[in-house]
Structures are given as C-alpha cells and as structure tokens.
Amino acid sequence: MSETFKAILVSRDAEKKQSVAVTDLTEADLMEGDVTVAVEATTVNYKDGLAISGKAPVIRRWPLVPGIDFAGTVVSSSHADWRKGDKVILNGWGVGETHFGAYAERARVNGDWLVPLPQGMSPHDAMAIGTAGYTAMLCVIALERHGIVPDRGPVVVTGAAGGVGSVAVSILSSLGYHVIASTGRSAESPYLIDLGAAEVISRDELAQPAKPLAKERWAGGVDAVGSHTLANVLSMTSYGGAVAACGLAGGMDLPASVAPFILRGVCLLGIDSVMAPKAVRLEAWRRIGTDLDLQKLASLSTTIGFDGIIDAAHDIVEGKIRGRVVVDM
Ligand code: NDP
C-alpha cells in the first residue's frame, strides 16, 4: 500500500456549501507536475484565510488542498533544473487556488514554479517571509524603480501590523527610509517601532472617504488595505510620488479621484506576486537575502504546527494575527 500523508482538504457539496477536513492522501492523489516536494514549512497568508473560511472565491477547483506557499526538499524530479535533495520555495502560480497546495506533507508541482531556497536561509525562515514578505519586497523594488529613495521623504505602510506590512516596515527601515506605519491596533505600536517604524499613525486617519487632494505627507507608500485607505494614501502623496498597491484587507474598491495623478503626477504601482515571472521572483528573494534583517524575523513571526492551520486561517481574516505565522510541518 502507498504511504499516506496528512493534508487539509477543502470540499464543496451539491449546494456549494464548503467544508474543511484533515485527511490522509497518497502521492497518487496529488495533481500533475514534474517535481514532488516534501513540504517542511508553510505559512498562513490572508489569501489562505479567505480560502479556508470561504469568505472569498479563492478556491476554483474542488476538492482542493489549500496553501499558497511552501518551502521544502525535492523528493523526486523529472525537471531539468531540480534534483532530489534540492531545497526550494514556491509562492503562488495558482497553488492553493487551482492546484493542490502547501497544506499537505507532499506537494507535486511544475518545476518552473520553484525557486531555490537562498543560501543561509532555512525553510522556516523562508516561510516567516512567505508570500507576504516576498510581496512586500516586490513593493519596495517597485518604489525604488520609480525613484522613491529615502531622500525623497517618508513612506507610509498601511496594514502595518499584518504580514505584508510588518515585512515592508522592516525592509524599508533597514534601507534607511523614514517609515510611517498605519495600524488599527495601537497596542502594536511598540512592535512596529521595534521593526523600524519612525512614526505610527492610526488607521482611522485614512479610513474616511478621501478628499481629491490632501496635505502632502509622504513620497510613497505600500498599501495592503485598498478602498478608502488607498484613496487617502494617494491623496496625501507628494508631487511625483508613487504608491505600490498590493492588498485589499479593507476592501477591493478604490473610491478615489484622478486628482493625485493629474495634478501631482502621482503613480499607482500595481503589485502581483502570483504570476510574477521567475526573474522577478529571483530578484525579490535575492534582495530579501540582503535587505531583510533575518534577526527581526523571529520578532515578526509566530510558529504553529499543522494542527493550528485552520484556526489561524480564521484568525487572519478577522485581523487577529500580528506579523507572520509559520507552520512547521
Ligand atoms: P494580514 O491579515 O496579515 O494583514 C492585513 C492587515 O490589514 C491587518 O493586519 C490589519 O493591519 C489591516 N486590516 C485588516 N482589516 C482591515 C480593515 N477592514 N481596514 C483597514 N485595515 C485592515 O494579511 P497579509 O499581510 O498577508 O496580506 C495583506 C493584503 O495583501 C491582503 O489583502 C492580501 O490578500 C494581499 N496580498 C496580495 C498579494 C499580491 O500578490 N498582490 C500577495 C500577498 C498578499 P493593522 O492591524 O496594522 O491595521
């Protein structure tokens, strides 16, 4: 009989009612792919919370093993780039959405989706960063490409105590930016200052409907929240600035005016981590290796086991998680 391994499986009944169960699978149950990986660490991202809670249509193939990212060791491969024993990371590519994902002890995927685990980084470290951290790095790179360097002025990070936000605060402060962290949890101010924030503001300041233009407060921003928050961030961005938008924790709408774009030359930079080309991923992970203080990862992450994934998924959509959650399998 084939060896079984633990997995979380999300299913839907004839009435499209979703259920989540811990089950045993065999490798024969996995979907097609040319590399099989022993998953050593994964994480709980906001998107995983939406998938497991069913609060948004993240899962588009039933039944499905959720989990959008993992780090682990190749156990078998027919892909030219990978051999048994290689340490790898996967983020996105529809894994945990349309392809069986990270919440199983084994994953079989397309080898083109994998990137090597950077030297000196453990699977646990890589998942303390996870898709949230890799996305934060994509935001920082986008701002830099737009010329938003520390001398241009402060940068704001919204949803700062969350996963993307925490890593963005940490990276931007290490690079010398004056970081203004916006949070709805004032009790997390000491945590954000410890990560490197120069100022902490209340999310309420950015939550009301935005004026077309408001007082210029920052040269750029990383926005994980969307909706009125992003509209306010744009209206408060100084002349020629830019905002990297990656999230929708506050809503998918954007009730803004064109005034910041046409009167201040502000740019809105869209960030997608899921389908980002391999070269972009390699650059982001290389930069994480050089620009993120791995010592800080311990303070911005908590570790749980496989059995804690479902509870953590519900907590993250309720905004109860601080920083990053790492799952040691
Ligand atoms: P987290 O839940 O860890 O962080 C989101 C943070 O947003 C919360 O911690 C909270 O921060 C803030 N927040 C939550 N609800 C609201 C609300 N109603 N109004 C205002 N602020 C709110 O999630 P992640 O950091 O993992 O992800 C953040 C966002 O980025 C998500 O929308 C996610 O889907 C998206 N994302 C997008 C990616 C891409 O490729 N574009 C990749 C990864 C994530 P605080 O308590 O500090 O206010």
Automatic annotation (TrEMBL):
One of its GO terms (molecular function) is acryloyl-CoA reductase (NADPH) activity. SMART domains: PKS_ER. It comes from the Bacteria. It holds the Pfam family ADH_zinc_N. Residues 17-327 form the Enoyl reductase (ER) domain. InterPro entries: Acrylyl-CoA_reductase_AcuI, ADH-like_C, ADH-like_N, ER, GroES-like_sf, NAD(P)-bd_dom_sf, Zn-ADH-like_protein. This is Putative oxidoreductase, Zn-dependent and NAD(P)-binding. It comes from Mesorhizobium delmotii. The gene is yhdH.
